[in-house]
Design goal:
Elements lengths: L1 H26 L20 H32 L5 H21 L1 H11 L13
Length: about 130
């Protein structure tokens, strides 16, 4: 019984962290560009404008994805409630792998958004008003 709860908590850990950290990035961007805390890529660290944009974009993305992944993890555990421990171990591996793909994969849309909104030197592009 404890194994099932442990697996469930492991599967919920990444989405909960994405929700919490995403909200922090979105609402409370680090005040200074640094190499330790925050969304740190070459493009995001050009200047404060790119730094704040990257945190806003990635934070919202992590927050939304975190809620979706959390709901999916809970749903998977409801569906496989009566499964044996071996099946739960495999299931946990699959769920965490998918969560990590979303976590790491969030870099791609964030970098695309930075590229679309900023020039290589970090100055903001003029977006035409529709």
């Amino acid at each position: 019984m404890w194994f099932k709860w442990f697996i469930f908590l492991c599967d919920c850990l990444i989405p909960v962290l994405m929700i919490v950290v995403g909200r922090m990035m979105w609402k409370h961007c680090p005040k200074q560009i640094n190499g330790v805390v925050g969304y740190r890529t070459k493009r995001s660290m050009k200047n404060m404008d790119t730094w704040k944009f990257a945190h806003l974009f990635a934070g919202k993305l992590w927050w939304r994805a975190g809620w979706g992944l959390l709901a999916a993890a809970v749903l998977v555990h409801i569906i496989f409630y009566g499964a044996d421990e071996n099946m739960l171990g495999v299931l946990c591996t699959v769920v965490i792998t998918v969560e990590l793909i979303f976590l790491i994969g969030s870099i791609i849309p964030t970098e695309i958004a930075l590229k679309n909104h900023f020039h290589k030197d970090g100055t903001r592009r003029q977006v035409p008003v529709h």
